[in-house]
Amino acid sequence: MIDLTPLDVRKKQGDFQKALRGYDPQEVDGFLDLVAERMETLVKETTSLSERVGALDERVRSHDRRERAVQEALVTAQKLRDDIQEQAQREADLARRESEAETILKEAESKLTDYHRTIEELERRRTLFLGSFRRFLESEMAALTLEEKTVAATRPPPSAEGPLKAPPETAAPPPMPPYPGSPTE
Predict the structure, then answer these.
(1) How far is Cα 184 from Cα 180, in angstroms, rounded to an integer?
(2) DSSP category for residue 21
């Protein structure tokens, strides 16, 4: 098949042989058939290309929609990433505060344990002191009892004359004057 251009058609006009009444009708008819076939092919190609352009336009629109969807997904993913980072920061802060609280609690428990040990030590010392003080008092009581027995052994037995009078040096001291501001009788 021959490809025709508008220039070919213009050149062809001078190639027709002249007949009595003008161009040779068979050559003109052949050329017109050729032009018609070519135009039919061009119309079919144009239609096919128009359909293809429509399909490609639809694909472009589809790709545009997908691109927008991808962009929206990307924005959503970025927001989600930011939210996750914020949540991770909050969790890290919470973990740090919990760690600090655990440290404070351990320190408090340690101090409490130290206080219990101190109290136990003080109670042990108190028990030792009370035992020592009791032994001291018992030894003093024993010494006092011994002193009383010694005094009683050196004292003369009571006479039948009556009760003994206290010697003058052991007489009761004179009464004390009242304390200033104390109630008087």
Answers:
(1) 10
(2) T
Q: Phi and psi dihedrals of 22, rounded to 5?
A: 120, -145
What whole-number distance in Å separates Cα of residue 74 and Cα of residue 65?
14
Domain boundaries in the chain?
6-152
> Do the strands 18-19 and 22-23 form a parallel or antiparallel pair, or are they unpaired?
antiparallel
Helix (H, G, I), strand (E, B) or coil at 90: helix
115: amino acid identity, one letter: Y
Q: Under the phi-then-psi rule, with left for phi > 0, alpha for psi from -120 to 50, and beta for the rest, what region is 4? A: beta
> Is-contact 3 37, C-beta < 8 A?
no
Dump strand ranges (E) for the chain: 18-19, 22-23
Confidence of residue 154 (pLDDT cuts 50, 70, 90): confident
Q: What angle do CA 13, 16, 17 make, to 5 degrees?
A: 145
pLDDT digits (tens, 9 = 90+) for 86-140: 999 999 999 999 999 999 999 999 999 999 999 999 999 999 999 999 999 999 9
Residue 47 is predicted with a pLDDT of 87
CB-CB neighbours of 27 under 10 Å: 14
Say what the pTM is.
0.40
Q: What tens digit of pLDDT does each residue of 155-176 get?
A: 776 665 555 555 555 555 566 6
Is the separation of the CB atoms in 59 and 51 below 8 Å?
A: no
